[in-house]
Amino acid sequence: MPDLNLLVTLDVLLAEGSVARAAKRLQLSPSAMSRALARLRETTGDPLLVRAGRGLVATPRALELRERVSQLVEDAQGLLRPVQAPDLAQLSRTFTLRIREGFVENFGAALLARIAEQAPGVRLRFVDKTDKDSTALRDGSVDLETGVVGKSAGPELRTQGLFGDRFVGVVRVGHPLCEGDICAARYASGKHVSVSRRGLDSGPIDAALAAVGLQRQIATFVGGFSTALALARSTDLIATVPERHTTNLREGLFSFECPVTLPTFTVAMLWHPRMDADPVHRWLRGCLREVCADYENHVARAR
To answer: Topology of 5-80 in CATH?
Structure first.
């Protein structure tokens, strides 16, 4: 295999027309440059530079190669140069974000506004997250994902926390739970809508109630938080959903602190390592992180 470093040497030799000047430019000794010229002659089968008086002149083959070699070296240097900051105003790109329902309703508008302001040519494609399989991040069909990081997430994935969350109970305005203290017994005695993407009959809420000797009455099972809240809005069913994840979805409903101890959790963004150094992907991650931070600051000021 030819030594591609010889392309740089040839480019400088043809530009300088002198072994001594080429050696100085490449910070080599004249003898090392002479040896490199000898290798080039052997590789190309042409003398390339020949003596003419006190100087060297290029052969027809060298003249033929000069522009091509110069362009090749320039292209190679461009490929190996550190990535420059993208011109966001001129950027045209579509990103696919795999996000569970409720996240778009809560953060989508602010994220789209921030992106439109900085990079109007960037579009977001939101797709529903129905499971925790990370194959789509690996094969590149999804660029970024949000969710609670669990054991099923691929160990090679990059993650960064966005915000902490907890579960709250939600009922329609006028529901009996809107009045008086809400103890675990009152909470358990009502009829509930249970959220489970996998259709499980029980979960952390049921385990927490069982720990205090109680069992809730589940009237129906649904696959998402927005469906659960829609049912709570128009019936006497009790929904239990993530607080920050569903702020906008819960507007006009009565929310209360769960009377049993439930685990808190962190919502994070996930991406594949191959996108780590991509400056545009890094910018997108920054936009999402800032939108969630702005929301957290807003919540803190409202308290």
So the answer is: Arc Repressor Mutant, subunit A (1.10.10)
